[in-house]
Write a structure and sequence with these properties.
The chain has 228 residues and is of the alpha+beta class. The protein has four helices and ten strands.
């Protein structure tokens, strides 16, 4: 019995009871059948942590989890020799896009712009917004290079057709028809019907003697510089 002394001195009965109670509580959390008896599943333990249970289930299904910290990137670093080739592809794509845009412009409705027209600038980003200008050049369809009027120094600006508006002169002055069947013909502005938003224009007939009166929308006629 002398040899039992050190054992009893180090044995903690309270800790042992707590450990047994903890083990019993863990076992009581396990699955049971209809009779209340424990149901033991092969390969699993009621004492296993949720992570361990999921790992066991994945192993049974043949699923292998990869540690994201050890994953290998599938992206490869582009070589310096590939840079000129990439630039050439980008340049070619931009050219094809521009050619496509030009083709779309050609396929769209005809432009009403022509040289000498006096138009109003509506572009909100323009420093000359709401000023008038004279069409001096047509670099491409739907775009006009204007000589801006009413500024101290000579100024020019290139503006898209969609940001321009026709201008009506005073009654008795000449206008050019810019839309419709009579587009391109010149006539005299006889009257402005404000309630109907129509311009009464007298167009020269084909024989140059008679005149034909047309009632046109405001955006169908425009003032022309140099014509009295």
């Amino acid at each position: 019995m002398a040899d039992d002394g050190p054992f009893f001195e180090t044995f903690d009965a309270t800790a042992a009871r707590i450990s047994q109670s903890h083990l019993a509580a863990k076992l009581n959390q396990g699955p049971r059948d209809d009779a209340g008896r424990f149901r033991i599943t092969k390969g699993t333990s009621s004492l296993a942590t949720p992570e361990e249970k999921r790992a066991e289930e994945n192993r049974e299904r043949g699923v292998t989890l990869v540690d994201p910290t050890k994953a290998v990137s599938l992206h490869t670093v582009k070589r310096a020799a590939d840079a000129p080739r990439e630039r050439e592809k980008t340049k070619k794509a931009k050219k094809e896009k521009k050619d496509g845009d030009d083709a779309d412009d050609d396929a769209g409705p005809p432009s009403w712009l022509s040289l000498g027209l006096v138009v109003k600038i509506l572009d909100k980003s323009s420093a000359h917004r709401k000023r008038k200008g004279v069409v001096r050049k047509l670099p491409r369809k739907g775009v006009a290079e204007l000589e801006v009027l009413g500024v101290d120094a000579a100024a020019t600006e290139t503006v898209a057709e969609k940001h321009l508006e026709t201008v009506l002169p005073a009654v008795g002055k000449h206008v050019r028809v810019v839309k419709g069947e009579a587009a391109g013909r010149v006539g005299e502005l006889r009257k402005i019907h404000e309630t109907r938003f129509l311009a009464e224009v007298a167009l020269d007939a084909a024989d140059g003697v008679r005149q034909r009166v047309e009632f046109l929308q405001y955006d169908e006629v425009c003032k022309v510089q140099g014509l009295s």
